[in-house]
């Protein structure tokens, strides 16, 4: 006999947002793929009080933009500018511009060199940038041909990270600084130790401090030399800069040089690797377009800075009590602006988890410090905004795009060295600040 019973009406279970355990930030899952956690933060905890790390994490695009531009209530420095503090004595770079908050001293330090990285000054430096890129390409081309001849590999293969990205931007910035070309191998080691020391703590911090001490010692005679007879280079500008008749002391000069070497070397290297990773593995279809029209590398750069930016977080401190999304953040609280989360905000970008060099809701082309564009589109957050907006933003784009074009000309048939790849990750668990592929093997030439 057929049953006449009807099923009881079932209502869909309410969606309960999964909470956030602050230890997730320190886990391997987050190191490999932070974006699911970013989405949960944006959707349910846009001003997240992370008690475990004693900080507030801000993840929505509009909030990140507003805080970058709010100098009154958010300062970069934890210190009050007039306090009796020894700036930078315990930091990996020594005293440097990142230690300064929003005050006039920061603007002065910035202006000592900022004009060198943009406009005509940058254009004048392009031949050097091109020469350095050509030298590195020549070097790996020779090496890969030798490897094939010696039977070490069947096909020409390079590790783009170690054989190009880690070599090129640091040599560009060391040329600009006026450091001796003969010591470039040493600068390659130092900048990596400095950046790891800044970002990853523990043993990395100790190695970073060692690199800083070695570099400080190395710089002594050079600084004396430039003070006595200045040249046309950044070290001479830094040594000779004056504010109200006062010059930087020798540790401040050294700190500035260390910071520029690391900032100029590190981030652009990761940018190039991220661009190549996404072309080779994420969008091989769009890579074909880029091969046909190399000017599209400029779009690849911009979309990479949105989709998988090199720098994921920037810190700020509240200068007063601030209310945000119904939470009261106290004065002097540590704020983490999540550039990586803001860049994937579905309130701003359609289909944000798709890498697409043709998207119509992103401002392509040169970034503006104000973040406001005449085309009405949203800019990526990858260079920050406002007073501390990246000083090397034009140089990074020029360097990265130029190098990618030259790399593609040298390896027109480039393809992934391995079928699978672990992707763009943070190198160390517990630190999501910088992200790039650890290795990136590229195959080229006849098989
Ligand atoms: C793709 C490459 C790069 C990325 C992703 C990047 C990212 C950033 C970000 C996010 C900031 C903002 C810091 C803040 O708000 O507190 C910044 C500042 C800065 N960047 Fe870059 N950067 C890049 C390339 C460069 C290069 C090539 C240089 C130097 C030659 C450089 C030098 C600096 C300096 C000195 C600051 C501090 C500016 C200030 O405090 O006023 N950067 N960068």
Notes on the protein architecture:
With 447 residues, the chain is of the alpha+beta class. It has one domain: Cytochrome p450 (Orthogonal Bundle). It contains 15 helices and twelve strands. It has helices at residues 28-32, 35-44, 61-68, 104-113, 119-149, 160-165, 168-177, 184-200, 202-228, 234-240, 250-282, 284-292, 297-307, 339-342, 393-410; strands at 47-50, 55-58, 74-75, 156-159, 242-243, 246-247, 313-318, 322-324, 327-329, 334-338, 415-416, 441-444. The strands form four sheets. A five-stranded mixed β-sheet has the order 1-2-10-7-3, sandwiched between helices. The chain is globular and about 90 Å long. The chain binds protoporphyrin IX containing FE (HEM). Residues 76, 97-98, 110, 117, 173, 260, 263-264, 267-268, 271, 310-311, 314, 382-384, 388, 390-392, 395-396 line the site of protoporphyrin IX containing FE.
